[in-house]
Design brief:
Distance between the termini: 30 Å
Mean pLDDT: 87
Number of domains: 2
Number of strands: 10
Structural class: alpha/beta
Protein name: Two-component system response regulator CreB
Largest sheet: 5 strands, parallel
Strand order of the largest sheet: 2-1-3-4-5
Shape: elongated
Keywords: DNA-binding, Phosphoprotein
Strand content: 15-25%
Pfam families: Response_reg (PF00072), Trans_reg_C (PF00486)
Bound molecules: calcium ion
Number of helices: 8
Oligomer: single chain
Helix content: 40-55%
CATH architecture of the largest domain: 3-Layer(aba) Sandwich
CATH topology of the largest domain: Rossmann fold
Amino acid sequence: MPHILIVEDEAAIADTLVFALQGEGFGTTWLSLGAAALEHQKNTPADLIILDVGLPDISGFETCKNLRRFSDVPVIFLTARDAEIDRVVGLEIGADDYVVKPFSPREVAARVRAILKRVAPRPSPDLGAGLFHVDTERVQINYRGKPLNLTRHEFRLLNCLLEQPERVFSREQLLDALGVASDAGYERSIDSHIKSVRAKLRLVRAEAEPIQTHRGLGYSYSPGHS
Ligand code: CA
């Protein structure tokens, strides 16, 4: 069941959306602040976000810009004024659609369905003979059918290794994949991320050792040891 995050400070509007979306079988979460929405999306990613432009803390535009630094989740803006619409339509914000207030909640639910249908077929490369499944939208990797509880850095690290089986990545290259500037202190942090990822893989399969250490060189993903 797709989960929709509604970010809207007017309770009456949020209520009608919650009602319409739940009526269509969607799960919903309602938040009234942009900052809270960003935090929420980092921890428990929704499948789509309905985002009011006029929020009490940071604007919906600002919220969306911040969101785009770590997520490609589809966003539908709720706009109240013509000036807002112009900016949304300008597409500089990274929205997928917008709805002008006052709106019909059923119309919004229909847009949600349409967008989710559009983004749904997201074929993931068959990594390691299907042992790993990477869902970049949810920032989630499944190993042998079980979700790994990875941090964002661990996700990027493992994803990078999985994309090129048997390739040996240096610590510096892996830092690049994390989007972290390389220096001596950070290179050692790769080792601790790897250690943590390995521990999480072993929670699924005790003898799993798909990440190989290459002394003096770095790490690789080896499907044969999965
Ligand atoms: Ca508002």
